[in-house]
Design a protein that fits this description.
2 copies of one chain form a homodimer. Chain A is mainly alpha-helical. The first copy, chain A, contains 7 helices and 3 strands; from the N terminus they run H-H-E-H-H-E-E-H-H-H. The first copy, chain A, has a 3-stranded antiparallel sheet with strand order 1-3-2. The longest helix of chain A has 19 residues. The first copy, chain A, is globular. The structure holds a DNA duplex.
Chain lengths: 158, 158
DNA sequence: CGGAAAAAGTATCCGTGTAAACAATTTCCT
DNA sequence: AGGAAATTGTTTACACGGATACTTTTTCCG
């Protein structure tokens, strides 16, 4: 018997120069990467943003909350919520240092560290070259190019 | 006098192998691309999603709403809202064809077409190679690699 | 010193996008 | 034919993430 063959007939849509826009292509690929991530981690409570925060704190204990936010391109207001949730879950510790009582230093608890260790392998495997349809070489090229992107603004004045 | 030099002192944060994950890198770059887009179009009512929808409809008049949604990786529930808003704004027309009265066919109004024409140039200029710090060649390479990405799932069974 | 300005983080409200349940229509199968 | 199943789009309820305004603390000068 043949496989189901679902959705074989899908209309072809003309996109024009849209496929030549990095903005559009980044959006498309990022959405699909997210979907792949959630499929791979379905059944667990691992979310990309949260896990990334824990990952970075594992490498940088005592990091300031604001520095973490800027590094991961997360806005302060959202970082507050993320941190509250992860602290509530028992994965990280908030500490207000005496030398600057405005700031908050973050570090992992034992549970947080264990959580990172437990999912570290799968986290890196999800988007491995073979899982995204690239060769090792292409994968490296892609990372290099993504790392080069700057998004500087070019003012309209001459 | 010297320039302001703000934010010169920014802590260095160790990211480890995070920078070797396409998922993470796609997320970082996409967020920055969005920011660049909104900066460029500040003062206008142009949003990436909406404009992309109008763009595709300009190239594919009479496209079905569902086909459009699948093409642009937009979920049906959200596409409904997008279409309602754009129809309200007078940019597109919804039409229920007699041969399948479940579906909705979309096409641009004159105002919608004019809107696309008015911002077409800037839309393509925003993320032009020079504005994202890449050479023409690198830009083409990046587009090719992004186009190759597949995000197939690899089941755990051997 | 002492007040103005800046910095860090938080609370509140809003926009974007999704999942799940639903209504309407068409197709499929016997 | 006629009822089950699939398809299409919408409604509703909610999660994610950001903008803005605010509180607390520190810094910056006079």
């Amino acid at each position: 018997m043949n496989a189901p063959l679902p959705r074989l007939i899908e209309d072809v849509v003309e996109l024009g120069d849209l496929t030549k826009s990095v903005g559009f292509m980044l959006r498309m690929t990022q959405v699909r990467a997210y979907a792949q991530f959630f499929r791979a981690f379905s059944g667990t409570d691992v979310r990309p943003g949260e896990f990334t925060v824990l990952w970075v704190l594992a490498l940088n204990p005592g990091l300031r909350q604001g520095t973490l936010a800027r590094t991961l391109q997360i806005k302060p207001a959202h970082m507050t919520k993320l941190v509250q949730r992860l602290a509530q879950a028992g994965y990280l510790l908030r500490e207000v240092p005496p030398e600057d009582r405005r700031s908050v230093l973050l570090s992992l608890t034992a549970a947080g560290l264990e959580h990172v260790e437990r999912h570290r392998a799968q986290f890196h495997d999800v988007h491995a070259p073979a899982h995204v349809g690239l060769s090792e070489g292409e994968y490296g090229q892609l990372l290099t190019l993504l790392g080069k992107l700057t998004f500087k603004d070019v003012p309209e004045c001459p």
